[in-house]
What we know:
Blueprint: E1 10-13, E2 17-22, E3 25-30, H1 31-37, H2 50-64, H3 74-82
Antiparallel strand pairs: 1-2, 2-3
Amino acid sequence: MIDMESEGFVGETTADSNSYSTGPHRLDISSEEFNTIFAVDPSQAWYWSTEWQEKEAIAAKNLAGGRYKRFNDVKEFIEFLDSDEN
Length: 86
């Protein structure tokens, strides 16, 4: 297991949750998530949180359902953002 404090995290732990922060970033996770997440690089732990994984699942469903738009270049993308189309 990784020693979070030696990795630069400042933490608070209760019986059912853990809260860690590095600088301006804060990560609130369950103890179960903590045991799973911190087997990976601590700087990538946010990605494995339940909240982020739920967002990843939504994005994957949108991609699989064809709910996305391709752009030929950055200019076309910016024009789309500035339009009423989005």
